[in-house]
Amino acid sequence: MSKKDFIFPIRNDLVIDYYTVEDMSEQLKVWAFELVKTNMHDMYSKSNDGWDEEQKKKEMRVPEMRYLIARAASDPQDLKGFLSFQILHEETMDDDIMAQAAYCFELQLIPSARSQGLGEFLMQILERVGNYWKMDKIMLTVFKANKGGFRFYTEKLGFTLDEISPGACLSALRARRFDYEILSKLCNNN
């Protein structure tokens, strides 16, 4: 699939480009990784698994990864942020059933692009992808320490703890060992 542009409806000065990993330039791949590192390094470093730069680079470059990259309409080099996702089969609490999920791996914005509706818009595009491809749900993982991110996904976008999230399927005592939760939202075709 080739690159596609989406016009950002709230502001006509932004464009969203769609890329497969294969379509992305090395410069874009490096920029996306550096944005994750800038925004998330401290949170990852304090997590149970820590920050593993090579593993994160590898994850971001798997052939199945897709990117929605926000940029200024007037300047393709003026990048604002991105959402990366994959279409996955995810486990459920029923051993015989796998869920089809559009899984958000990263939603990262530069500081000046935050609190303007761009993150919400990128997530809405992912929901449209999930609905179009008749996925069961949209999923993502969020660190418990990321209070702002947790509120954004649950209060603003309507995500809830997924059935396989530690906080949903384990006792409170066992769930405390995990520093993340898995959130999900059903697609409209359900």
From TrEMBL:
Superkingdom of the organism of origin: Eukaryota
Class of this enzyme: transferase
GO MF, one annotated term: histone H2A acetyltransferase activity
Reactions performed catalytically: N-terminal L-seryl-[histone H2A] + acetyl-CoA = N-terminal N(alpha)-acetyl-L-seryl-[histone H2A] + CoA + H(+); N-terminal L-seryl-[histone H4] + acetyl-CoA = N-terminal N(alpha)-acetyl-L-seryl-[histone H4] + CoA + H(+)
Domain N-acetyltransferase, residue spans: 28-180
Organism: Circinella minor
UniProt signal peptide: none
Localization per record: Cytoplasm; Nucleus
Principal location class: cytoplasm
UniProt family annotation: Belongs to the acetyltransferase family. NAA40 subfamily.
PANTHER family hit by this protein: N-ALPHA-ACETYLTRANSFERASE 40
GO CC terms in record: cytoplasm; nucleus
Keywords: Acyltransferase, Cytoplasm, Nucleus, Transferase
The protein's name in its UniProt record: N-alpha-acetyltransferase 40
Enzyme nomenclature, EC number: 2.3.1.257
